Amino acid sequence: MGLLEFFWDVSQQRQIDSAASGVQRAETGVRSQESSIAALEARIDRLTLVTRALSELLVQHAQLTDAELLARVEEIDLRDGVRDGRLNAGGQKCPKCGRVSAARREACLYCGAPLGPPNPFAGA
Questions:
Q1: pLDDT per residue over 28-62, tens digit each?
Q2: 3-state DSSP assignment of residue 8
Q3: What residue segments make up the domains of the chain, in order of their start?
Q4: Pairwise CA distance, residues 75 & 69, whole Å
Q5: Burial 5-31 (b: 16+ CB within 10 A, else e)
Q6: What pTM was computed for the model?
């Protein structure tokens, strides 16, 4: 084996090692994402269970109908102007200057006037 072949082999081995290292990093990233997805799925399952329980309690104790509950869901969905099955917490309109600040703020970003308590569902 000549000197040129030796350096070629060393170069190839470095590229192989680099690729193997990249694969390991990618596999670690995938495992991390899988863990995050599993946690989100567990949260969704829990929220679905709680929502179902609340719905059944409202029907049973407040004599609300499923149709009334579904109508309220649609009304809330449309508050942001888009029927998309998603809740958009949006912002809060300032009673003093009329501008919109982030939903989680307690005071207007523009004039400093109190906005009242932040929306407990902002970012939910």
A1: 999 999 999 999 999 999 999 999 999 999 999 99
A2: helix
A3: 23-88, 90-124
A4: 10
A5: eeeeeeeeeeeeeeeeeeeeeeeeeee
A6: 0.54
